[in-house]
Structures
1.
Amino acid sequence: MDTLFASASRKIPRSGKRRICFPITSRAYYGRSQLLIKTLHNHPSVELELMLSGSILLDKYSRHVAADIEAGGFTISASMFNVIEGGNHVAMAKTACLTALEFTNGLDALDPDVVVICGDRFEQLAIAMAAAYLNRTVAHIEGGDVSGSIDESVRHAITKLAHVHFVTNDDAERRVLAMGEDPKYVFNTGSLDVELASRIDTVVSNERVNAYGVGHDVDVTKPFLMVIQHPVTTEADNRKHLETSLRAVGDLGLPTIWFWPNPDAGTGEMAETIRHFREHHEAPTEKMRFITNVPADEFVALVKATACLIGNSSAGIKECSYLGTPVVDIGGRQHGRLAADNVVHVGYDANAIRAAVERQLRHGRYPASHIYYRPDASQQIADRLAAVELYTQKRFFDAVTTGLAREGRRG
């Protein structure tokens, strides 16, 4: 046990700049945050410390990502293996517990001024809890959104642990204020995902796409579909729901790029279902290529090029709103989230999925929406992180909710 707690006594020397810790727990988070990471890295008032953990350190989800990060000129301050595999709820809960333990040691040694938490992942909640107990200022990106799974509870829990908030849209800002957060620490900066999508002009080639994953070759110069369907941790029928989507998309007869589900509870049975269909050469997979992940710029290029994005990924809600990509959102994972006109919502019904995709294919691309877009989101966040007043003792801010109540009575 001595080695487990040894890091607590080895503080990293300070440079005089504001030390900002940025934990990265998945390739997706690194991809969508890379503009912010670069901006913080180059900021004259910031000393950036990157800490890696979660699926980003597992080859089956994020092969060579750590090397890619270092090749980009960034220094990795710590790497912590915290994932208990199994793809079920017990493994997910234990991974969160192990994350809190590992990051307590890591953050104590790193001694940051600010810990930046992104989104609604269960690992990020564990890190926010550890940072708050260590009396570090916690900054949260993407608070105030709603969704249809445990992710919403996690997101709001992080909001109540966080001291500084960077929200992506007007509705999210209203919700964060309604939760009693001080308005002077709530900033509507727009979405980092959308900012990245707005700046990328990569064109991905057939040769490049078909070098990833397994299955049927896809010609991305012709109409193709793209599917991203993750498990919903509060539902028990992830296998059945995935089978429904596989058959519905297969019946459409178009080449399809299908991205592997993320490592939430339920991913084990979903991965097993995909393997069964593919290895037994069942009809739905005849024109599908299954890919674990691609670099962020190539992902955006594929989202731009696809005739329709299908599934339950937030990319369909956020990036696709700006890019005008038609989307069929399946099930309740994104339930209630602010969406533009490019999104059609359907349940777990094969006929409804097919009909919705066919309708979107007939419609074609949509005008760009700016509901999640603000120019220079990463620069705004970096400048705020470098200069905002730091504090650790939170107070519930009553003025906002009191004002809302008074407005309601007047109405």
2.
Amino acid sequence: MILVNIESLSLSELRSIAEQEGIEDSPILDREELIDALRERYEDDDEADSGDANTRYLSGITDFRGIGDYVGGLPGVVDLPDDYSETEIHLVLRNCLWAYCYWTFSQQEADEIADTGRSVYLSVAIMVDGRMDRFEVPAALGDSEWNLSIPYGDGWAEVSLVSEKDGDRRIHAVSKRIQLIDSYWLRHRDEMKSSDMLYRIYLSMLTTKEGALVENQVVEDIVELFREEDIAK
């Protein structure tokens, strides 16, 4: 259901909707008059068909009244294409341990890959603390997104959209590099260890009711460093 608060619409949008609703003199009505006229129209329709929850318009418009058929006629509204014409790949950082990757093939390249039987995969490059690492993630032609496990530290990551057959490797798109996030507490563990309250608060958020740490590489590394320091003493 499309639900829009009519008070948030611009004057041109209100006039466009009022015209589609058949409200007389809509081109010359001011903003408040248009809002009142639309509210009255929706309330009249609500009373006429009060048995359906979708007709409770109040201060909104809904696709129950067929708005889906003409919402594209609103000023500034354009239809999104089913497929994009460009082959692109993007990488977005979710947190210090995970990144989200999404991509699209142009129809021409997708058809060529399917016709020639090429395999598709993601080539991930990661530079962290001055060390380069690369790995590949197999993908199907119909795939469009993937979650990637990444290390934390000082560095960057990028991903390439690749197809290959019989040693012929073709790079179709490369994402922008994203900056990796380092763990503040891993680099400043003495600050946490000196404050029992801070230590308890940070770890309690990542501890199960049985007292075990949830799977989190950063926390595991911090705890391991604390254990090594205690043993050394």
